[in-house]
Amino acid sequence: MKIAILFYSFSGNTKKACEFLKNRLSSKSIGVDLIELKLKEETASFLRQCLQAFLKKKPDLAEGGYNLEKYDCLIFSSPVWAFAIAPALRSCLVRIETLEKKRTVCFLTYGSGAGSGKALKELESIILDKGAQIIFSKNIAGNKTKDNTYLEKQFKPLLDIL
Ligand SMILES: Cc1cc2nc3c(=O)[nH]c(=O)nc-3n(C[C@H](O)[C@H](O)[C@H](O)COP(=O)(O)O)c2cc1C
What we know:
Blueprint: E1 2-7, H1 13-26, E2 31-36, H2 46-54, E3 73-81, E4 84-85, H3 87-95, E5 103-110, H4 116-129, E6 133-141, H5 148-161
Parallel strand pairs: 1-2, 1-3, 3-5, 5-6
Antiparallel strand pairs: 3-4
The structure holds flavin mononucleotide.
């Protein structure tokens, strides 16, 4: 089994959770590639980040397309920004023509939790529209991503099925 974790992280919380997941899956002898999404032009302005996310913008990614064919399962992750997924993840998803019959996982990290349910539902719907099967979907508290016990509990159902 080969898994890719495609994620965007601005301040590191989502990255921590993705790295935890990679380590746990690797310990089960599952091959995992971490693919960090970067924007060509990153803005550090909170207002601009919110606007881009809220308006569902798809800014250019720093890298070209990804060959996802070789993976049996794809994991998509980003922070919640302005009740939505981060623009970099949206940009990545629009480039993927089909996810027909792919097993997928989605999880978002959040701050206050405002709009996190809405953001996760939207992510699920984008993935389902591309024909994928979602085997696990979850919102994770961003401020607990340094806590491995918390992460273990959140990801247990996923780790049990993979
Ligand atoms: C521009 C911006 C918008 C955000 N909007 C929300 C939001 O609508 N709801 C929420 O719960 N958290 C929101 N947050 C908090 C992040 O989702 C949270 O801190 C997340 O864990 C950050 O992940 P990262 O460290 O991987 O970038 C926002 C953070 C930023 C920077």
